[in-house]
Amino acid sequence: MSRKESNDEEMQFNREEEEDDEDENGRGLDAWERTYADERSWESLQEDESGLLRPIDNKTLYHAQYRRRLRTSSAARIQKGLIRYLYIVIDLSRAAGEMDYKPSRMVVVARQAEAFIREFFDQNPLSQIGLVTLKDGVAHCLTDLGGSPESHIKALMGKLTSSGDASLQNGLDLVHSLLNQIPTYGHREVLILYSALSTCDPGDIMETIQKCKASKIRCSVIGLSAELYICKYLCQETGGSYYVALDESHLKELVFEHAPPPPAIAEFAIANLIRMGFPQRAAEGVISICSCHKEAKVGGGYTCPRCKARICELPTECQICGLTLVSSPHLARSYHHLFPITPFDDVSPSVSSDPRYLPKNCFGCQQSLLNPGNMPASCVSCPKCKQYFCLDCDIYIHESLHNCPGCESFRHSKTGKRGHGVLLKAEEKVHYEAREPQSNLEMEKRSRDLRKGESPQEIDLQDTINKEIKMNHLDEGKYQVALRRDSTPKNKPEFIAH
Amino acid sequence: MKFQIEDVTVYFPYDNIYPEQYSYMVELKRALDAKGHCLLEMPTGTGKTIALLSLITSYALSKPSNPVKLLYCTRTVHEMEKTLAELRFLHNYQVKHLGPSARILALGLSSRKNLCVNPRVVSAENRDSVDAACRKLTASWVRALAVENPNIPTCEFFENYEKAASDAVLPPGVYTLQDLRAFGKEKGWCPYFLARHMVQFANVVVYSYQYLLDPKVAGIISKEMQRESVVVFDEAHNIDNVCIEALSVSVRMQTLEGATRNLNRMNQEIERLKATDAGRLRAEYNRLVEGLAQRGNLPIGDTWFANPTLPEDILKESVPGNIRRAEHFLSVLRRLVQYFKGRLQTENVEKEGPVTFVASINAQVGIDQKMLRFCYDRLHSLMLTLEITDTDEFLHIQTICDLATLVGTYTRGFSIIIEPFDERMPHIPDPVLQLCCHDASLAIKPVFERFQSVVITSGTLSPIDLYPRLLNFNPVVSRSFTMSLTRDCICPMVLTRGSDQLPVSTKYDLRSDPGVEKNYGKLLLEMVSVVPDGIVCFFVSYSYMDGIVNSWHESGILKEIMQHKLVFIETQDVVETTLALDNYRRACDCGRGAVFFSVARGKVAEGIDFDRHYGRLVIMFGVPFQYTLSRYSRHDKRSKLPGWILSHLRDAHLNLSTDMAVHIAREFLRRMAQPYDKNGAMGKKTLLSQEDLEKMVNGVGDMLF
Questions:
Q1: What keyword terms does UniProt attach to this protein (chain A) (predicted)?
Q2: Chain B interface with A: residues with Cβ < 8 Å
């Protein structure tokens, strides 16, 4: 084939392509143009002092926001509502089909909701979730309150189409009628993921908001595009929080903020006893009729301590006798919310620029605390053990680990040689590193990863929690627990013999 | 808080002050010291009113020997009430700190419609009929008759007020219109006449622009004000319009027909009077021969509109002989009305100057300039002689006489325009003859001359150097202040192209182009889908708004907009617009979202705060630049924008198309929805406490200048 021919062919090919483009030219933009027009990738770049391009540094901004949240949420030891009944309201109106989040708002919302549901049950094993969707001006209950993440996620993923207007009032009315039935000790919450910028209501939404307020339903809204007055008002009135997401990662952060339990509402905060059962795991190979699926099953499952019915999953409410059934690890995992570790202090550059006081590495991950170019980067220090940590470890410690590695290692080694408080001299540090090549944090991270795969029964509980709750006193299936949600250090949970 | 500006201790009723409020006060103080006029621009919502009030009252308090009086002019009754409420708050604070010596008398003054407490009078539907109903009960001859015949109704409040005579005074304090009514009811005194009387003694008077600018009203109300007064025109960005309107008259067919009816009625009265009481006409004639147009000091109930020309232009001569007799005068008016009727028959738009107009009147119906000039005085005298009380019926002939007097008095700065139909509806004949004043400086000139300091202030006075030229005065201080914000919460954008990349503009030759209209519609449609709550759209004129809304309706864009937000439109009707605004607010409150179409520099939506979620986005379809003959180039135009907008206008936002603007709006709104530190980041203080101020004055901090 001669060169000319191939050129001709190419041109022809091009022409055809052009024609195709013109045909499907719906919005007046080509597909490749659209990606640029919508994403505007050039806007996420900035010029530094020397004129070089680099991505806009959002890390410090995010960290600042995280710090602010930390300060407001975990100030001192506040009572927290550990038993939560949360409805997630997902807006699937016309606006949810918009494509400013890729591929579309509703897909992103569903993705985050899925992750959130898993995280929620991980952090709040005693709580339950239900799903509601808003579409075509009506609210639809997708799933009832329940403790199984899989069933919610399955129901949500099957319903992803958007149309019509959103009605906040209808959504709130529905949730109100559903949440009004739950027992009084439970904390009623609504999390609304709202794409629309307006609400089309049949009546006076202010009345509905007052109704929710009267029923102590805490309504929080996460907006996807801009601040809407009525949402702000709703959250203000009912004590919830209102945030608007900047992008998908920010949305994830905002959604996940709702995973740890919120401070308890004063009226609910009186300590009272809740009846709970700790079912025993049924022996292998026993055939029994499952009360939740209404069919015969072999092995596995749990037995309700009161009515002896077989249950597949924990936590749940017994279908037969209505007893709340949990396992002790669930309780233990809810426990750390009551004793959050204190927020770390920001280290001001003036202190950290003093070379003598300058810690080179993060105490957690042993990464260097210096920026490229030996400029001190921002870091934080624990007010108790005075160790320095990088910003990533800061978030990890507070959000996942719930133990300060510095304080823990300090406590373990009280009898040992190391841990002179604030500073380790260089030689000493080298010696210490040589002795303990793995940092505390790495170990913690690994143990956490290990745990993930295992069933809750076999979880090796964290040391500290073991120390706090005398787990060895607990014989599964024979005790009921009364959890005092009043959490001053003196009032550790009491366990009462059944 | 209490702080010192040079030799004046300023009492400010809040704990914190914006830095721009402080510098505003400093400039104002300098202008007062210099006894000169000043021009101050400060953005809306930064607390101009309280800064003004607290500085001027504190200034008066610091000079007890010769306290200045404050005449505060607002445009609407609503603003008047807001100002007085703020003044009361300030006054309470000052009295708390200074004791009873700080007591002042402050009151609002409005028309009888807003002040009357007589249920029989105030039930009338409009201002003119309330005035007439009041006159029917309070005119001196009515009252004289009532003494003899108790069946003739009078107003008990007015009678009580007259009886109390010099005892009828207001104790010191701050009185809103509401308070005045309550006080009047309690004492049984007429609040309107009481307020009008007390205006001369009050330390602070809050009233409408007209009471100073319109010679017809100012002649009665503001005649006695002392020279040592500070006059404040608040929200004065269209003060030039008020000035022009005060001296403009328009005559329609209905006016002429009404005037003919009035003349017939007066003719009957004259005939009746001739038969019953010829002496009264005789006495009037004698008075006119002696050169007294007025009957000397009129009883307070008899005063009517004063001469429409400015005080110094009123001739102090006797009325010309050929209109001294009532019948002669009536026939002159008849001829004049007939002449106007003839002029209104025209098919084309006509425009001429006052000189040719007067010459043509003289040639065609034989009325010379001097007779025209005396029309108002002569009519006024005749009405009093005939003892006519239903003044609202006689507004038509009064309009004719006002026009005659003005056209006879002024030869420059005016023109006569005759239009055969309304521009919007060319097939319906609606002829109108207008006497238009072009020179805003005419009406305001006496104010500048009479009072030692005149303060003109508003959120938007840009370009600020234009106003001294428009109003022909020399300000000693002329400054524009910006706004200190804790974050950049204003994002101005300039749109030049539509979604199809074609240029859009509200230039006269482009604005009715269907492509441009469609592009504007698309812009609004895109915006309603990304902006929450309230959107306000300003158009340059009512006719343009009507045209574009019609075209959007026809092309279905309006319907698509309604899917996102409800649409409300300002009309020229006050009640309708108030209702629309009310519903607009409700739609914003309940989350439905709404768009409000309004006219920039229009009269109805003036002074309405579209704050917070009531105005998340403002679209100006055309910028209402103060009209000047020279055309600004784009860059030049930009510099004519108010400073507080200009300081937030980025170069990148100057030349946008619809999709870019929508994208920027979306990102901006996301950013604005993020929580922020109210105390101001980066050490930039936006609210100063007393200590901050003291530090600043002592030269420690120089963050201001």
A1: DNA damage, DNA repair, Metal-binding, Nucleus, Transcription, Transcription regulation, Zinc, Zinc-finger
A2: 499-500, 529-533, 564-565, 588-593, 612-613, 616, 659, 663, 666, 669-675
